[in-house]
Amino acid sequence: MIEVHALRKIYDHHLAVDNVSFQLEPGQICGLVGPNGAGKTSVMRCLAGLIPASAGTMAVAGYDGQRDLIELKRHLAYVPDDPPLFDDLSVGQHLELIGRLYQVPSFHDKALRLLETFQLTDKLDAGATTLSRGMRQKLAVCCAYLFDPAVLLLDEPMTGLDPPGIRELLASVRSRAETGATVMISSHLLPMIEGICTHYLVMKQGELKFFGTAAELRQRYIGTRSLEEAYFAAIDEQTDRHEVDLGNDPNRACEPRVMEVVA
Ligand SMILES: Nc1ncnc2c1ncn2[C@@H]1O[C@H](COP(=O)(O)OP(=O)(O)OP(=O)(O)O)[C@@H](O)[C@H]1O
């Protein structure tokens, strides 16, 4: 469902993602973890087609990241950590926009059910600018869920959510995966994602330090008793760094100014 091969992202001579490869199947939930600046958001934004990769290949739901970008975007939802909502639209209008854009059948009923799940029913007519930080996050998740994408990329989705909101979000991620979605979830809240992830991708300074199943992670770092302990073992592991020509990014000159939408 997600295939990434030798992904590299260079911003103005800064190597943010270096030679990252991984593959995820339907139903799998991958925790994307690593220290600040590790390259997690860059991986997600490349996958979502919001920024061009400097090198490497990607495919989502069988659609190539370069040749079939529009189809790829139809099958993928990216929820950034600070969702850029439309200031002039209400909660209901956001869902209506997504429902119409993605031609979701009976989207009204579905939207109302999602709002109920995420305790936003009483905000149906509220303007986006009047929402709290956590409510904005919940609305972005509702918009992403509305069109049932095959792939969900959730960047720090728990930021700003209250404990019931976090519980609801994690349960919803699990049930999306049970119905066949592939989910990548980046988070620094390791104990919270530990219960739902089938796979982990650990990054540090652009490098992939580990990719595999939760069982493989435990096996590789024997003696670690939690995801947190395995995480520290993975990021402390020394690897040989290779030289990369940072001046030779064919996409650097034409990188677009990105206008993100909510889903
Ligand atoms: N638009 C940009 N221009 C230049 N450098 C950038 C840009 N976006 C990210 N970077 C750099 O790329 C590196 C990776 O950033 P990225 O946001 O992908 O990390 P992250 O793992 O998501 O971090 P965090 O956990 O803090 O959100 C960082 O060193 C960052 O400063």
Automatic annotation (TrEMBL):
Q: Family per UniProt?
A: Belongs to the ABC transporter superfamily.
Q: Which SMART domains match?
A: AAA (SM00382)
What name does this protein carry? ABC-type transporter ATP-binding protein EcsA
Q: Which gene encodes it?
A: ecsA_1
Query: Is Transport tagged as a keyword?
Result: yes
Which GO MF terms are attached to this record? ATP binding; ATP hydrolysis activity
The protein's superkingdom reads: Bacteria
User: Do you know which InterPro entries this protein is assigned to?
Assistant: AAA+_ATPase, ABC_transporter-like_ATP-bd, P-loop_NTPase
Keywords in alphabetical order? ATP-binding, Nucleotide-binding, Transport
Which positions fall inside the ABC transporter domain? Answer: 2-230
